[in-house]
Design a protein that fits this description.
The chain is an alpha+beta fold. Helix content is about 25%, strand content about 40%. The N and C termini lie far apart (about 85 Å).
């Protein structure tokens, strides 16, 4: 028995390869791949921003994404567009000009990202300047006839301007 198998192993390998090819053809014909642009632009989420830095340039609010996926995955995306997210991770960046690639995260598989427009976003980060100022209360004018000025109070006595 083992001798017959060892003499015919090439036939087994060919049969195995052909069975995989038939399986792949059957799966792709039942659920064919489609390449298309998402119906709505994907909002860009900015993460990792240092609170001591501010973005001092216009950043696109949305990106357009083209995907290649089986029809069943497209049905999932059409039912819940929140599956696709565009993320701009600016963690660890210092002040100055930066060009960062937009990261696309998709909670469905299998899928291939064909294109993202714009794929890279260029922006300027600057240090946030703050100053503490004291607040003074100043009364001007006279009260109307029949009224009198009561006791005044001020809260807060300082404000922070950024």
């Amino acid at each position: 028995m083992f001798r017959w198998i060892s003499e015919n192993y090439r036939t087994f390998l060919w049969a195995f390869a052909l069975s995989i090819a038939v399986w792949v053809a059957a799966v792709t014909s039942a659920d064919p791949d489609e390449t298309r642009l998402l119906d709505a632009p994907v909002p860009v989420q900015i993460i990792g921003q240092d609170p001591s830095l501010v973005i001092n340039s216009d950043i696109p609010k949305e990106v357009e994404v083209t995907l290649r996926a089986p029809r069943s995955v497209w049905n999932l995306i059409d039912a819940d567009p929140q599956i696709v997210q565009a993320i701009l991770d600016i963690s660890g960046l210092s002040s100055g000009e930066h060009s960062i690639e937009v990261q696309i995260q998709i909670d469905a598989r299998p899928i291939q990202i064909v294109s993202v427009g714009p794929g890279t976003i260029t922006f300027m980060l600057e240090s946030l300047a703050t100053q503490t100022l004291s607040v003074d209360l100043s009364l001007a004018g006279e009260p109307a006839v029949g009224y009198q000025v009561g006791e005044t109070s001020l809260e807060p006595v300082e404000i922070v301007v950024a």
